[in-house]
Fold:
Amino acid sequence: MTWKLAKNELDQDQLLVNESLLALGNGYIGVRGNFEEGYGDDLKSIRGTYINAFHDETKIKYGEKLYAFPDQQQKLANVIDAQGIDIFLDDEHFNLFEGKVVNFNRTLHIDEGYTSREVHWVSPNGREVKVNFNRLVSFSRKELFAIQVTVEPIRNVQKVKMVSTVNGNVTNYVEKGDPRVNSEHAKLVALGDARVVGDYRIVQVSTMNTNLSAACVTSYTAKASESIVDSGVIRDTFQFEAGSGPIVLTKKNVYTDTLRHGDDVVSRGVELQRELASFDHLLVEQKYYLDEFWKIADIEVQGDQRLQQGIRFNLFHLLQSVGKDSVSNIAAKGLSGEGYEGHYFWDTEIYIFPFFLMTNPEMAKSLLMHRYSTLDHARNRAKEMGHEKGALFPWRTITGPESSAFFPAGTAQYHISADIAYSFIQYYLVTKDVSFMQDYLAEVLFETARLWVDTGHMKDGHFRIDNVTGPDEYTCIVNNNFYTNSMAKYNLDWAYKIYQELDDKAKTDIQDRIGLEVGEVLAWKEAADYMYLPYSEKLGINEQDDTFLSKKVWDFDNTSEEDYPLLLNYHPLTLYRHQVCKQADTVLAHFLVEDHQDEETIRRSYDYYEKVTTHDSSLSYCVFSIMAAKLGYKEKAYRYFNETARLDLDNLHKNTKDGLHMANMGGTWLALVYGFAGLRLKEDGLHFSPVVVEEFGQLSFHIKFQGRTLKVELSDKFVHYTVMEGESLNIHHIGKGVQLEPGQRKSFTY
Structure:
């Protein structure tokens, strides 16, 4: 059960959810889990195939447009649909919503990287057949999406016909009334070409405004009896006689785009087609790739199979969605749907990046390099926002420009620049990559530090930052958001520290490159040292901002379940006027930079903010789980972790149909490793303060750190540390230094 996800529902709502749950991808392409033959005319499907970062731009419409509001919005484009395969039994259409379904099993094989759909069906006229669909998106051959169909006639079938389509006439999904989903601009790509050339079917499309092109080159293992090209759709018909055993058709689709393959995407697609192996060999390749992935990435828990399934499901989808090249990142919904229009958020750095950092540092570095490639856009945005120097990273984007039209909960989230700086620092602590520090880290830290000095100001002996929005999107445009100020302080401290670490040549290089003056460096130190971190003497907690505690507390007792999430049912100003949090804000700061406050302040703050947080954001549960574990609230830690691990599997936020919640999936790993195992990454190395709840029985995982692979095992009484690869390692266990020798298993109570 824990390595598989079986979904057998045929009702409308769950079909849409399952399209996301059973989506396949590899970080380059993603294909929703649609039925090859569709659902018929009465049921809706969100049919989608996506290429990471392949996008169009549309004009943002404003009733009143003010200075520096973004002009364009980037949108991930739905591209060529190569899923279509219709089956006819003596001209009777195979359709699960007609006739009789004797048996129906649909499975995601998490350890092997493919989906299967097994159907035993009797048609309205009594024709009986078994049909199996296997599909995969290859990790080894990133451009490949393949389907294998096996038809086994059982009774009253003389001939089997398959009609396979490759459709370039596609649109994006549109849904009015939900700001998390595209509400207009369904048509983002135009047909460029559709033709049959020998054994290949070629469809090419181009975006309307960004002039990007994508192609799909398709081949089959059987010869078509007829091929028709009409209105951007290539329709191939395959005829088979029943009676000689199972009938098998394999369809291999190679996707290319101008971002990775140059201008001649068709020729490159044809070249890649010639290199393809059989479907069985592709399955072997897929299994090998995933075996290597799971050696480090897998987390084992005992005592709860539903949680174990949720953990593996979430980590698998992170792998399927993360960009693995210089032009892509990981979108809020990955490549599983069109929610948030394929945009990259700060979710990547704070919630998703740590998983890759500690299990696959090279993949983590790729994410950082993509952010670094957008640094000039961030510099330009800072200037647009009135800053003389610095880098202001966008709230939502694909290639770097800000794509959010709603500035109070978008551009005003200045903390994103500190979040990105934080991830660069974390990478340096884990790898000690000095070249990376000199070539990339320093520049990002210095430019973001410049932003804070220019944004804030000294008043009454403190450095203050006004008119920003923290992570909590139900509280916007405030002075001295605690999270923002804490992360800015961390950013500034490290900018100063890294400058001191640079050798003379590196200092000269960075000074020449960005025009840095020594006086700026001293200003960073001063701002960090005098940073104002709001604190309520009366309550003994950190104030979320200067005015949060003076507001009326939201009337939770008289808010019905139907009113959640609040953002869909109340005007933003109504929310801004109350003490109500969409997600962790101050509590998140206490997790990321816990050394800024003492534990009792952190505890009192947790107790206070928990009461006013709705968790309307999927980014929230995991943070409350992590901090509950730190504070010894074991029941809460386990309860919040349950919400995290199975948020999409159980559709807890009722919008999984629009794509999976990637940040929450990263939060699953965080809650286990940073929560129950109590990992903290500090300048002097790895710190562990384990807290394992009884429901787990045992928890084990691997992490990579400075060239070593460390295995950590926790039971109800003991924790065991083993350096599996690499040299000896010094760690801290509940504050005490411990030296681990290679291959030696050391055990401690806690």
